[in-house]
Structure formats: structure tokens, C-alpha cells
Amino acid sequence: MGVMGSKSREYMFGGTVRHLAERATEARRDADGLACQAWNARMLGFQGPAQPSPTLGDALNAGYRYLEVKCLGCETHQTVALDIVRRPKWTPVHELERYMRCKDCSR
Questions:
Q1: Is the dihedral of CA 63, 66, 70, 72 positive or negative?
Q2: In angstroms, rounded to a whole number, what is the distance separating the alpha carbons of residues 7 and 14?
Q3: What is the Cα–Cα distance from 34 to 28, expressed in whole angstroms?
Q4: What is the pTM of this model?
Q5: Residue 105 lies in a domain
């Protein structure tokens, strides 16, 4: 088909393709959010296990911008901004262990 065929394909399928792509994006965001909520509940309710955990990218995609951590030594709390962590987005959140201890206890 010529030019007319491509225009009619856009007319027939363009809206459907865009709608389904939007739904897929929303479903990924919802799934990432549920994974983060489940991990948070496990950590708060049972203090672990930390593995498996969502990835850094999953957390950011779900709208989680910060990780609150408690030092295992002295139990002080610290907040880590996930969008400035210099790790690949596929890094599981539980691998951010260097942020899990305060400076005093890590010595």
C-alpha cells in the first residue's frame, strides 16, 4: 500500500497502540508500587528478610524517592534520596547496605 495505507493504519490502530502503551506503563507503575509496599511491610512488620527487594528503578518508577534506614548498631534513623544514589537502576534496594549504618557505627 502507498501513503493512503499508512494513514489508514494510523487511523485504525494509532489510538489503540497509544492507549495500550499507556495502560502498560500504568500497570508497571502499579506493580512496582505494590512490590515496594510489600517490601516495606515485611521490613516494618518482621524486620526482614531484606532479600528479595525491589530495584532502585522500581522504587523510583513507583514514586518512592527516599529510603528511610535505621542503623543496625545504634538504631538512629537516616533518610537516603534514591534519585542521587550512584548505582545502576537495576540494583536491588537491599544492596544499598552502605547507607544502613551511621558513620559512628561503621568505624
A1: positive
A2: 10
A3: 10
A4: 0.77
A5: no
